[in-house]
């Protein structure tokens, strides 16, 4: 059973006057411990990045860069055919932008988490994962890589010594392989169902797949999405359910310290 867990959410995912979802970032910021902030390619712009980092700093929420494919129209959820080196250069460009806003507001870059289709491509593309992790080893050796456990990204991080955080997706379904099932329009999920799913994953290390089977799942952070309809209710019910079970919510730096005290490793 997990005694402490991080909650991360994708934030800053708008562009200019255009907004997505039914929940504003300010409402969610006080309910999470880590923020994945869009960096301009799939969503976000300089003013929004500045605003979102400032909000995170004010709420004591750790900041992470959330780079994606250069795909504003498709919200970064369409695969772009490019070489691994080209894609990592896109990531470097985006991480650099977010890191400067973090410096402006006196906060560190806690983590980098690729977005959407880029995240899923990296999970199964060892070359892309390795080049990405090589960049992290050079430019941000103490920053965490957020990824799925057992993915190519996770393997590359472990092999290189880059700290990694495994995620559990609260508002996404899983298949029997442990991969996320992509749904273009997920509708409005039931927050109570999600809360029960999260508590079970934390207590029993299991999640039910779309085919009805149970699979084992290991993670340090729970992810949900600000563009999921009802995101605010989801956040409240998850937190309340976890707290009721005695599971503490904390950023990954505290989780790392907790594991170290118990002789465990991330």
Low-confidence stretches: none
The total strand number stands at: 12
Rg over CA atoms: 17 Å
Q: Could you give me the name of the CATH homologous superfamily?
A: Glycoside hydrolase/deacetylase
Q: Order of strands across the biggest sheet? A: 1-2-3-4-5-6-11
Biggest sheet record: 7 strands, parallel, barrel
Helix content: 40-55%
Number of helices: 9
SS class: alpha/beta
Q: Roughly how many Å apart are the termini?
A: 15 Å
CATH domain class? Alpha Beta
How confident is the prediction overall: mean pLDDT? 94
Find the CATH topology.
TIM Barrel
Write the CATH architecture name.
Answer: Alpha-Beta Barrel
Overall tally of structural domains: 1
Order of helices and strands: EHEHEHEHHEHEEEHEEEHEH
Estimate what percentage of residues fall within beta strands.
15-25%
Shape category: globular
Protein name: UPF0271 protein
Pfam families: LamB_YcsF
Describe the structure.
The chain has a single domain, classed as Glycoside hydrolase/deacetylase (TIM Barrel). 41% of the residues lie in helices and 18% in strands. It has nine helices and twelve strands. The strands form three sheets. A seven-stranded parallel beta barrel has the order 1-2-3-4-5-6-11, surrounded by six helices. The protein has a two-stranded antiparallel ribbon with strand order 7-8. A two-stranded antiparallel sheet has the order 9-10. Helix 2 (46-59) packs across helix 3, helix 3 (84-104) runs parallel beside helix 5 (126-139) and helix 4 crosses helix 5. The longest helix has 21 residues, at 84-104. The two termini are 15 Å apart.
